[in-house]
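subagent[fold] <- orchestrator: predict structure for attached chain, return tokens only, no commentary.
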Amino acid sequence: MNKEKQKSVLILGGAGFIGNNVTRYLAENRHYDLTVADDFSAGRKDAELETLCAKHGIRIITADFSKQKAFELLDTHYDDVYVLASVVGVNRCIEEPEEVIRINANIILHTTEWLRTAKPSRVLFASSSENYAAATDIFNYPVPTAETVPVCIADTRHPRFTYAVTKIFGEAAFFAYGRTLEIHTTVVRYQNIYGPRMGFKHAIPHIIERIYKGENPVKIYGAEQTRAFAYCTDAAEGTVRALESDASNQQVYHIGNNDEITMDTLTRKIGALMGYTGGYEEAETYPGSVSRRCPDITKAGNDFNYHPKVSLDEGLRKTIAWYRSFFDSGAAIPSGGFKAPEALNYKK
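subagent[fold] -> orchestrator:
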């Protein structure tokens, strides 16, 4: 195949959890000239990604894109750009809120300015369901939540919301630059995406790790809170469909699943799948955590036929198998594992 005629695609943050899955989906389902750009922090440069890149001839650029100079390493033009790079995680927000603000805001500022010269045909910015932190809990907007619900947070002083603030800022920035520069611009708000290799600072890995290490009784943090979890391969396909849709310019879409489940049910389900036979006890959840979260995904279904395929049980089995294998290997957790809410360095 003539490489010169291939569409050129940049996945900024392509070694992260969702970025890795988007990279794999594009490599296996499109004939594009792909570039993965990432700082490869937290052990992201693993053998699996290197094998994928070598097999499909994917270019790798290693740099810290919170610094403007890193953009000099990129090509002068790409047809499509996926902006998936950011710092994420409740623990990180609570313990290092200033770093979340610094890194995420700088990535957004430097990337949008870079668009002036790169002028891609299409760009997609990855946002988050965290943007609705106050809409449902304080203002009682309906759940499942549609994209038309206002984005808002409860308290700018609360470190938990630093991530959401940067994502709200990013949405506004990319839409503004997209209009001015006449670039097809799309925003996706991810809704509790999970799967193998998602790190160790999210709900599902927390539960798996604690059961694997013998916690008994297993604590159920925020037992009555609800979430709706979407498997990583579904999220990756939805992301690509969103960027490539002719209907998606200047639009926001939910990428997730609308099967709502309580944390109590989720924890017990994981326990059953892992063969755990011990007890459970309820515990207070993480500060700033919302009571319900479930997206309305109708718009994505209508505009680009996004319909999740992987059931929760199937996705959990695959995820548990990956984490079992990781823990069995004796490898060190790259950025530290589970940390209980009561152990976090948080002061009201």
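orchestrator: received. Logging for downstream: The mean pLDDT is 93. Residues 12 and 37 are 5 Å apart (CA to CA).
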